[in-house]
Specification:
- By secondary structure, the chain is α+β, with helices and mostly antiparallel strands.
- It is built from ten helices and five strands, in the order H-E-H-H-E-E-E-E-H-H-H-H-H-H-H.
- A five-stranded antiparallel β-sheet has the order 1-5-2-3-4.
- Strand 3 and strand 4 form a beta hairpin.
- The longest helix has 26 residues.
Length: 235
């Protein structure tokens, strides 16, 4: 077993394992996927061992075991999809799921705007929503959700709030790192950054060995912490 296989087995379920955990046969799970009612697999490994990452594209050198791989948290979204289908056809259910996700994601962003970092594209100084910016954020999040990206990069992708928290931590740390690289005096007090980095480390997945060098975790946990400590980041 190589490192990629070990990572997938440690952190992900195959389609067959996911179906079993949800009490479904594989054909029923495939129908939910085809109807875009649940997130796509975060990883797909082809017959030749090529790893297709939802976030990073293809890695022909992976040599991993063929299959479709899902974050175990996908169980929560399968349950939501089945609830929606109990009340409506697939198209109506998909629209209802999107509306619910985007509404909950917007509520999470409002909470994070108040408690983590200002989101001036989405909320004014009184915390009232700015529809254009907020709609753009929730639409982008829904698209990424459907592609299986959050199952790849968020350690607990079982709720909109958990997903939004990881995304805003990443955005905040990226902006703070850029600001410190330009003008440390104008970038504000860096005293809160170790805590934010630790929080982000908990919110983000470890990433597979092939992805890690290009990952936000490498940039914002390993490299940024080294920069704050005055050490050069690892290659």
């Amino acid at each position: 077993m190589n490192e990629t296989d070990a990572y997938l087995r440690r952190h992900y379920w195959t389609a067959e394992q996911l179906a079993g955990a949800c009490g479904l046969d594989i054909a029923r799970l495939d129908t939910l996927l085809d109807d875009r009612l649940v997130p796509a697999p975060s990883y797909v490994v082809g017959a030749d061992g090529t790893l297709q990452s939802a976030a990073f594209g293809d890695f022909p050198e992976a040599g991993a075991t063929p299959g479709r791989y899902f974050h175990p948290g996908t169980v929560a979204w399968v349950a939501r999809a089945r609830e929606a289908l109990a009340r409506a056809d697939a198209d109506t259910a998909r629209a209802a799921l999107e509306q619910r996700f985007r509404r909950n994601f917007a509520a999470a962003l409002a909470d994070l705007d108040r408690g983590l970092a200002r989101l001036p594209d989405s909320f004014d100084d009184q915390g009232l929503p700015l529809p254009a910016g907020l709609d753009a954020r929730t639409a982008d999040a829904w698209d990424a959700f459907g592609q299986g990206i959050f199952g790849l990069c968020v350690s607990d992708p079982t709720s909109e709030h958990a997903i939004a928290t990881k995304e805003i931590l990443q955005e905040t740390l990226g902006a703070r790192r850029q600001a410190l690289a330009g003008d440390r005096a104008a970038a504000g007090d860096p005293g809160d950054l170790p805590g934010l980095i630790a929080r982000y480390a908990r919110a983000a997945m470890p990433f597979s060995p092939l992805e890690y060098p290009r990952s936000s975790r490498k940039r914002l946990v390993e490299d940024f912490a080294a920069e704050l400590a005055g050490a050069p980041p690892a290659p």
